[in-house]
Each structure stands twice: as structure tokens, then as C-alpha cells.
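[job 4471] stage=fold_predict status=RUNNING
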Amino acid sequence: MKKWELARRDLLKGLGLGMGCLPLLHASEVWSAAAQPKRLLIVMNTNGLRQQYWRPKDGDLMTQTLPETCTALEPHKANLLFMPGLSQPAYGGGGHGSYVSCLASGENDNKGEYRVPFTPTVDQIVGPPLAMAAGLTRATLCLGLQIAGGNAGIFPSKRMCWKDRGTPITPEEDIYRAYGDVFAGGTGGAKDPGNDAAVKSMLAHKKSVLDYAGSSLERFKARLGKDDKEIVDSHLTSVRGLESELSAPKADVAKCGTAPGSPIDVKASGNYPTLMKLSLDLMVASIRCDVTRVATFAPCDASGSNISFSWVPEAKRGWHSMGHNPTSGSVDNKKFADRWMMSSSRRSSIA
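[job 4471] inference complete, writing C-alpha cells
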């Protein structure tokens, strides 16, 4: 198939679209390769996991039933590897401060609980070469979820990704801004849904970033072969599917007071489950659409003290508190919180 290198920049410029559409312009180069591209997705689980309910028995997973915390992953166990007992020998500390250095590739400043890494984190080591090999300009996507409260003001309690000692990466915690940045280039106004207010307005009026492309994408698709047309259609389906989720999130009106069908408050505690799913969906969409090959997601800061799990009847306590004292009234609240987290990690509607 003919390469469209000369048309790529002009098309993006004319459409006002960003890097989310690049897979459409080099679909055959990236996706038609014999081997599937290598990808890395990292989801932080603050406060760890109750090992006795999470860790399978040693040996072949296909000869056993996964523990109750991981029940949601049972259909996928043929593709899973559990690696319990991992440690970060360079950290040398304990407690919630390990959140900052757990992905680091080497030593840290050895000062206090929140020890700053001297070396890049795993995502920053893996991301750039994968992006370069694929011709992508986005090496990694770093997402976060930070509702009101928590330790957000305590540096560096919500930074788990670092380029180097002096360059922490603050995760994008506004799902609408993150969506606009990934799929619309973040340049301003109606042609820049990178602005979170513009994204909310656009979605509330049932518009799509792809609508701004007019018929240009369809004309482009007409120049492709059958396989590449299917790739383009798959890409468009992913983007529109995520937009549908963002424009009509299934929020619980009783908990957060937001009418279903409207963009929601990204800081309201009652919206946490909905925001969790939206964040995971965006993470998967960015990988599926080949915007990036590496994505990370931090569902809270280092302590999780502002996450109450009020939506889990058996775990209505603060995440931080459960981390230190898992049980209350003879109920292992942490076990149920862990199970909800593990279940949420496989619920992306566009996976």
C-alpha cells in the first residue's frame, strides 16, 4: 500500500485533530505487521493486597480456581502471571512512601518516607523505544484519579512515574482533559477539546471530536485496502465508544447528585467508581488506537485516605485505614475492597 507521509501533517492540521488519529494514517505500517506490538499497562493498587485471598497456589493456574479476590479474572487465567513477593531492594524504606519509588529502576535520595528516585521509572524506560520504533510521538500516557481530600498536597505522594531525579510526572487527573489531549491534540476551543470545559460542552451536545473531521476521514478510508479499512473502523468505534461513556456516565444520582447523561464532577467522592471505569477505558483506548504503547494509572495518592469504598457494602471504610487494619467487627473489609479493585481492572467496555 502507498504511504501517506506527505498527507499526514496536512490532514491533521486541516482537521484540527491530534495524535489520536495518527493510527489512521499509518495503519498498515503499525498493525499489519506479523507480530503484535509490545505494550505495557500499569495500574497501581495503593495499600497492597491481602495475600491470602489474592495469591493462587503455586503451579499451573489452569489446575486450580483463582482465590476469591481474583474471581473476576478466572476467565482470563490462561493469560495471567502472578508474581507475589516482589520487592524494591533499592528503596530501603517502608510504609506509603514506597509508592513513589516502587517503579524506579535504581536508587533514591534516602531521605524520609517519600524518597525521590534518582533513576527513571519502568514506564519511562520502556515507553520511548517502543514509541520510536512505531513512529509515535507519545511515549507514555500517565493518568490519575484524585477525588477531593487525600495527600495530594504532600509532594511527591501522587507521583509514581519519574523521568529522572528532578523530573516527576504528575498524572492527569481530569478525565475530560486527558481525553481531549489524547484524541484531539489539546489546542483550544471547539477544535481543542483538550480544554476540559470544551470537552464537557461538546459531549453534552452529543458531538464527537471526529465530527470535526467532516468527510475527510471517510475520503481517506476510501483510499485504503480492506484490512486497513477495518482497522480505521475499529479505531473510530473505540473513540466513539469512549465518548459515549464520557457524555453519559452511569453516575449514582443518590450518591453524587449528578444527573445521568451529563459530564460529571471529577473531584466528587460519589463519582469514584464511574471515574475509575472511565479512566481504565481511556487507558485501553489509547493502547488499542495505538496512540501510545505504554500507559499508567494511579487510582489515588500514596495513602488513599480519601477513598471510602462506600459503594462496597462490606468495605465501607477508608482505604488508608484498611491498609493498616484490614478487619473491623470480624469482617475483613480489605478483602472486599481488593476484590472490587481487581474486578474494576477488567471492566473496560472497549477492551
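[job 4471] summary: Residues 80 and 340 are 18 Å apart (CA to CA).
[job 4471] exit 0
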